[in-house]
Amino acid sequence: MTERPVASPPSTASRLTAEAIGTFLLVFGGVGTALFASHFANEAAVFAPGVGYLATASAFGLTVVVGAAAFAGVSGAHFNPAVTLGLAAAGRFAWADTWKYIVVQVIGGAVATTFLVLIGLFGPAGWLEEAQNAGFGSNGWGPLSPGGFQLPAVIITEVLLTAVFLFVILGSTHPERGTTLAPVAIGLTLALIHLVSIPVDGTSVNPARSIASALYGGGTALAQLWVFLVFPVVGALIAGYAYRAVFADRP
């Protein structure tokens, strides 16, 4: 009986390319759905805004499922700087490689929203200007919060839900106690997180996604961006260190 050849580990270039493409997919699919669904809900009255929230939540969840199916075997399918740092805190990823992943994730997200802008240039009259005036899918509080929530609510939401997201990722992808359904579990969790928190702050739990939208979202979006760089990371680090402490038999 012939043994199967052992696959060589992916190169650094392959891993970084996978992270960039996966983050592109996440942002293009999720933010694109938010922008286009919002347009139809508000302008064409095709469906209520709540259905737009459901469409956006589903899009973010689906992009994680398909992205993980495509790239988990190459890069681990982080697609999110908070996830990368949380995995490092849990001992699942090398700290020395975190900056490389974060750089390409931010680039992938920024390219995605740039393509959304290019599409918008050829959209209905006034669509792009309206989308940018509304923040271009940016996260925020006060005027940028769909439900009018303020900064303390946003901080609590981002820390708590990013921690929940990391606990699901760490548990479902554990090398011994994980499940083959991890991509589905992670995608459903991200969809649930969006259903809970879109009305609060548009849902970040991902600094790369927040940067990508804020680049085209105007002054208020950029001024509020720091919250979505800091507090998802805080939540991810809390979850990573806590998971390692509680389930410390092996990383």
UniProtKB/TrEMBL annotation:
Belongs to the MIP/aquaporin (TC 1.A.8) family. It is found in: Cell membrane. It comes from Microbacterium gilvum. Keywords: Cell membrane, Membrane, Transmembrane, Transmembrane helix, Transport. The gene is aqpZ. The chain crosses the membrane at residues 20-41, 53-72, 78-95, 102-128, 148-169, 181-200, 220-243. The keyword Transmembrane helix applies. It holds the Pfam family MIP. This is Aquaporin Z. PROSITE patterns: MIP (PS00221). It is a multi-pass membrane protein.
